[in-house]
Batch of 2 targets.
Target 1
Amino acid sequence: MLTIIESIKSIMEESFEKAGYDKKYGFVSVSNRPDLCQYQCNGAMAAAKEYKKAPIAIANDVLEAVGDNEAFKSIEAVNPGFININLSEKFILSFISEMSTEEKFGINLPKQGKKVVIDYGGPNVAKSLHVGHLRSAVIGESVKRILRYMGDDIVGDVHLGDWGLQIGLVITELSKRKPDLPYFDDNFEGEYPKEAPFTIEELCEIYPYASGYSKEHEDYLLEAQENTAKFQNGDPGFKAIWNHILDVSIADLKKNYDKLNVEFDIWNKESDVQPLIPKMIDDMKNKGLLHESEGALVVDVAEESDKKEIPPCIVVKSNGATLYATTDLATIVDRKQQFNPDEIIYVVDKRQSMYFTQVFRTAKKSGLVDEDTNLVFIGFGTMNGKDGKPFKTRDGGVLRLQDLREDVTAEVLAKIKENRDYSDEEGTQIAEKVGVAAIKYGDLSNQASKDYIFDISRFTSFEGNTGPYILYTIVRIKSLLAKYQEEGGIVDEKNTTALLPADSDSEIKLQLSLLKFGEVMQSAYEEKAPHKICQFIYELSDSFNHFYHENKILGNDDENRKKSYIQLLILVKRVLEQCIDLLGFDAPERM
Ligand code: ARG
């Protein structure tokens, strides 16, 4: 369907033409003076130059051409040549009715969906999920949902880090602590135990310990590097340990992501693409792209137009080992074979931006993907603590995601218990839902590339631009609808004939807020920007709460008016619920 702005624009274009001016001047925008009008057309100002005429004269000509139009409640030219537009209640309502009945609220979908792979999450086995991985999961999940809603065929891949030094470090430390395990006996010929020689808790302690120790003891680091190589070359005992690490870690990761409503379609691992590397490197050699530089094999990726230096991409290290980039390139080969995507999106810390420039250019130069495949890097900023430094635990350590979630849940639980006496079970359930909303909205309401400050008390507040405020609005509507039903009313989302033209300013404002949905979705989709949806639902919630305070809803004496309000409430609730689903959280029944 046409958006309301497009419809006004088409009337204005026609009128400019009718008055003898170019129709390109009939552009319309939401008013930046909402106290004066809802929409404005500044085309007469722009046309003045071309027609060498005073803008106000042009505006008046156009108004004459508009004549009496049912769309407008008022339309006037004001000095020096603006056209101020207020729409008629009936005209606005026709869009609201259409929005209520059409699938996906009548938004315009792209003509053809793209095939997309989105690489997000990017956790590493053996390490517990910490807050550094939070943003990738939260932003990636939302971008995936937005693209899917808009008709793209999108696959979310967790791209599990299971191939690096962390494996060698765990193996090395384990060999010191439990040297008698059969994995370390080169002559062992039996079957390795099914049971892992560590729990997730132990694993999460072993890795940081080994990592810290290796930073201070060079021989230990060397040993870990050798063990990594031995594992990568297929040592059976080490591979068995690695399998245990995978099992234990993946189970824990799934549990954590599940609590955050983050669902990956595929769990591909860095290790999966290692077999593709030799041929890929051969192909690059044959194309003459690889050349030696200080013993390493590199691809030059600098371009003349570069403003800063882009160093060559190292594909094979001087000792013959492959590295992070090699794996990422092979993953592109794999994705091309599996999905032949139009677009691959990476949601990764923006500090890896240069790295991805190198990888993307190498992939294009080597023909790993077609020239027109879109390789997109969504680089996110850092989540900081209140001190403006990267978020840490009180004692300065890396905070585990699970602990963060539990802290937030506890904070919310305390808040909701102030209002009502919930059973422990219900209270916790609600607090978990609200907590996820607090965390995700707190993150997504910022433009992804910006750093932000994680402030528990602000994020969990029921007032202001927060997740809980949005949920509170939805819960308020749910409870109004439930009450209406208790009183014998019928809640039916299809009953749109009950809708009447608005009878107050707050209702008009609410309807106009709703009607922004289509444009918001379009720009959230094109710019891969969940924060646009946050802005929208914050405004919509505000408009709704204002409407709620200004009008008698259930207590209204006019039965028809009441029915109409209920219909509007249903639509607001549906739109809000759709939006929070796109952000990756949902609302409880009460809170
Ligand atoms: N595992 C990596 C890390 O923890 C992130 C992976 C990002 N994705 C990628 N394709 N490189 O830093």
Target 2
Amino acid sequence: MRRVAILISGGGSNMEALVRDMGGDHPARAVLVVSNVPGAGGLAKAQALGVPTAVVDHRDYPTREAFEAALTQALRPAAPELICLAGFMRVLTAGFVAGWEGRMLNIHPSLLPKYKGLNTHARAIEAGDAQAGCSVHEVTARLDDGPILGQARVPVEPGDTPDTLAARILPWEHRLYPAVLRRFALGDKRPVLLP
Ligand code: GAR
């Protein structure tokens, strides 16, 4: 059974989808949810699901390295083997990422390699793209880069706003990330393509 820590910053709907999937014959178990934002909605969701939580508030630390040292301390007792970033909105340093190479996943709300960074849905609409979606990838030192482990595509509809497009994509995030984690936990890195 692979031990999985999930890092969040917000509502934690992807975290919830991952935790709910990790039962029964699933090859992994959620052992800890960490938020860098105190009071993030996902913390209460994790507790309700019976998963231990921790908060490491990045504002308490003078540098990214100091924040990450505290994050490492918070993770250690749970002894995770894999990390899933799920709406975790801090950039991690190359040093931290190197320590988790091949063992850290992220979900990003665009069809990577398009639209790394923020405001992905607005950028897809602005560009006139016919399709948008989400990607799960291995985390490497470069932001929103790294081998793609799965993607889900949805149409961009006439009149879409960033909010309507996000609402169409989010349920696919909740299908894609658990599907990728199931495979990845068994060492299978072949991309999951949805729908
Ligand atoms: C999700 O849409 C996720 O793809 C995105 O934040 C949202 C978190 O929602 N992640 C990023 O933008 C990462 N750069 P959630 O907290 O409900 O899972």
